[in-house]
Design goal:
alpha+beta, disordered N terminus, globular, 124 residues, Trefoil (Acidic Fibroblast Growth Factor, subunit A), two-stranded antiparallel sheet, three-stranded antiparallel β-sheet
C-alpha cells in the first residue's frame, strides 16, 4: 500500500475509533468535522460532497462545509451531510463493505437502510 494511502486510511481509522467511543443517545447528535489527531487541521470529508452510492470518505483540510458534517444516530448509523437527500430522496450513511476483503478498503457512503432493519456494514 502506498504511504499516502496508508496515512489516509490510518487517519480515517483514528477518526472512526473516536466516533465509536461516543455514547449512543435517544436522539441524534450532530458533530462537526471529525478532526484527525495525527494531522492537525485534517478532517473526515465526503469527497466533493457527492451524494452518490459508493462515494468515498477522505481526509481533507478542515473547513466549514456541509460535506464535513456527520450525525451519529442512536441505532449506530452515521448520516453524512446533515441528512441532506439526493434527487431520489435518499439520505446517505457511512458504510464499510470491503469488496476484496482486505485491510485498508475505503469507507464509503451508501443509502441508509430503513431504521427497522439496518445492515451491519453501517453500524459504527
Amino acid at each position: 500500500m502506498p504511504l499516502n494511502r496508508f496515512r489516509t486510511v490510518f487517519a480515517l481509522a483514528a477518526a472512526l475509533a473516536a466516533l465509536a467511543a461516543l455514547p449512543g443517545r435517544a436522539s441524534a447528535q450532530t458533530y462537526y468535522a471529525f478532526e484527525s489527531f495525527a494531522w492537525t487541521g485534517k478532517c473526515m470529508d465526503n469527497y466533493r460532497g457527492y451524494l452518490t452510492g459508493g462515494n468515498p470518505l477522505q481526509i481533507y483540510n478542515c473547513q466549514s462545509s456541509v460535506n464535513q458534517y456527520f450525525t451519529r444516530m442512536s441505532d449506530g448509523h452515521v448520516i453524512v451531510q446533515k441528512g441532506q437527500k439526493d434527487a431520489n430522496g435518499y439520505q446517505y450513511c457511512m458504510d464499510y463493505y470491503p469488496t476484496d476483503l482486505s485491510i485498508g478498503s475505503e469507507v464509503k457512503i451508501w443509502p441508509c437502510p430503513p431504521l427497522t432493519g439496518p445492515g451491519d456494514s453501517q453500524h459504527w
